[in-house]
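During the reporting period the student researcher (J.K.) took over the structure-prediction task from the postdoctoral fellow and processed the backlog of single-chain submissions. One of the processed entries is reproduced below for the supervisory committee.
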Amino acid sequence: MTETGINRRLLSDQVYDLVLASILDGTRAPGSRVVESEIARQLGVSQAPVREAVKRLVHAGLLTSIPRNGSYVTDVSPDEYGASRQIRGEIEALGASIAATQVEDTDVETLRQIVAQMRVALDANNWADFRSLDVEFHRTVVRIADVSILSRLWDTLELTLISQRAIGDPGYPYQRAHLPGWHEDLIDTLISHDPQLAADAFREHATGKRDPERDKA
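J.K. obtained the following structure tokens:
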């Protein structure tokens, strides 16, 4: 059966979501090869929608294409990882400092609902969903600040931050059960309406400077 343009586009979206989820949850490790023919065979589709999905993931930086050698899950150098976290930290610190001055009850409720979903994802051991919710939480804070340049910067960097594991690192070595509580702490800094407190907390969180050893037990 020949795939129409619309059906192929829908299939491509589905393949994109499936491969993205496998990257988010760590199933596809950094440096591992993504073989289009294998994915197509596993899903029972032609290679065309898989090829389109892979191109989108390469464009987003989640995959790296090597001419005549295939596509691989992007591996990140320590320098790139550190730079990504620093950039994220400064964007979030500024966004949080502004958000703290204008956050409303409805915003707080939205953030608390996201954290509640984080707990559900962790209970189900669904790291891909958790990482998506982690991104949603921080994106929402930037949106609350309501500064268009910050939102545009976040939108530009979001997939890069995911691909470079600067958000919800799938290799996180400590107790993941503590992570929702960390986000609850961040909400508390916003509702304190103290811009400096919020900025410092979000920067510490984003750059990984919070000492995880104290939360290992």
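The committee noted the following: The first strand starts at residue 33 and ends at 34.
J.K. will present the remaining backlog at the next meeting.
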